[in-house]
Amino acid sequence: MNTTPTPYSSLPLKEMDSVTSICRPGHHTASASLDMDSPALSLLTDFQQVRAFTVSHESSVDDALQTMKQNSIHMLLVINGDGEFTGVISARILFGGSAITRAMQERGIDRTDVTVDMIKLPREEMHAIDYERIQRATLGDLVQTLKTSGDRHVLVTDHDENGGLRIRGVISAREVSNALGVDLDHPPEAHSFSAIRSVVLGHDL
């Protein structure tokens, strides 16, 4: 049979009889090959590529936990009634229990009445790194940044079409720790924003 010449080649196909695992967003199948010199983008959960899971600030803590379990995630972005980002709620906070107990005692309420807004990590207490900086950084830079800050999650920001800042993604200390086999679960060395930025930018602000 005559075929029309083409500059393209047929790609080799493999049998599927032994393939049983499905890759999921936020999980890295090649983590064993990552090292401190690997690109920081390797462990960025990029919200342009995967869905950002959110929860209303009015949701109960049990609803938030159920959402995490259903989607196999460990963090939710908290939004207010106007759809604005106000903080994060993590499985670490929910399972820790102390924040929930404190909210119950301070307000004299039952656990079922504790909302995400009462125990979230507020936006004002979080830190962010510019996406452009992440593009040039290594995982070693991230490890040093997380060790310096003590943060469990660091947001990554870029600019929208109007020039305003937006959350582009998030970096999880848990994922960095698991991928590289380093211990990031320790008391922070510093909490100031300038200390964190000095690690990433290479100088003090």
UniProtKB/TrEMBL annotation:
Q: Which controlled-vocabulary keywords does the entry list?
A: CBS domain
Entry's Gene3D superfamilies? CBS-domain
**Domain of life of the source:** Bacteria
Q: Where are the transmembrane segments?
A: none
Sequence ranges assigned to domain CBS in this UniProt record: 47-106, 118-189
Write the protein's name. CBS domain-containing protein
What organism is this sequence from?
Kushneria avicenniae
